């Protein structure tokens, strides 16, 4: 079957077991990821983490022509460590081979891979840490069309009345209205008697 244009969606979930380029024991580390998909390069948000796991939970969408879908073999993710006092350092990179995902997604019109860990390769060729990534390919759709569909899906009609109604139904029966009214009536009678004195 002929490969068609589509959208490759990458979900950058988290990283764990990273090697740190700068050794500052008291300072929390700041990380971000650069993602290269063919001619397109994007950068994730900068995440600050003290623990063993760093979270992004960020989605990236790449619109691919039919020719790009045929030629694209891999997506390269480079994990960077941010340092305020020196140049940012590359910790390592992960290569995700997406050729088969795109080919199968073109046949099925849609293919989704659940988030799984991918090894991070260091400069010396050894492995240290992992990036957790999810992948999705939607065939025969462009990015503008998909983003419009997402906007329409993510804006449900507002129904504030239901929220207020359920809140009032929950709280009103539990308020002792007689005591509440008696308290204010007693206070007003007390104020009148003071004024008359």
From TrEMBL:
The keyword Metal-binding is annotated on this UniProt entry: yes
GO molecular function: metal ion binding
UniProt keywords, alphabetically: Calcium, Metal-binding
Pfam family, one: C2
Annotated signal peptide: none
InterPro entries to which the protein is assigned, alphabetical: C2_dom (IPR000008), C2_domain_sf (IPR035892)
SUPFAM superfamilies found in the cross-reference section: C2 domain (Calcium/lipid-binding domain, CaLB) (SSF49562)
Transmembrane annotation, as ranges: none
Annotated C2 domain residues: 1-111
Keyword Metal-binding among record annotations: yes
Gene3D superfamilies in UniProt: C2 domain
Protein name: C2 domain-containing protein
Gene source species: Eragrostis curvula
């Amino acid at each position: 079957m002929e490969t068609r244009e589509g959208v490759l969606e990458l979900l950058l979930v988290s990283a764990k077991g990273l090697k740190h380029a700068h050794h500052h024991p008291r300072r929390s580390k700041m990380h971000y990821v650069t993602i290269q998909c063919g001619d397109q390069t994007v950068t994730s948000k900068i995440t600050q983490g003290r623990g063993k796991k760093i979270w992004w939970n960020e989605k990236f969408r790449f619109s691919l022509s039919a020719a790009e879908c045929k030629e694209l073999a891999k997506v390269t993710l480079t994990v960077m460590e941010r340092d305020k006092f020196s140049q940012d350092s590359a910790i390592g990179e992960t290569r995700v081979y997406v050729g088969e995902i795109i080919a199968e997604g073109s046949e099925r019109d849609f293919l989704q891979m659940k988030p799984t860990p991918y090894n991070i390769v260091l400069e010396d060729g050894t492995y240290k840490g992992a990036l957790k990534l999810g992948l999705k390919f939607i065939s025969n759709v462009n990015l503008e069309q998909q983003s419009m569909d997402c906007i329409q899906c993510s804006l449900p009609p507002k129904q504030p009345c239901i929220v207020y109604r359920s809140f009032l139904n929950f709280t009103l029966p539990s308020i002792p209205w007689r005591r509440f009214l008696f308290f204010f009536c007693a206070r007003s009678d007390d104020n009148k008697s003071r004024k008359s004195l």
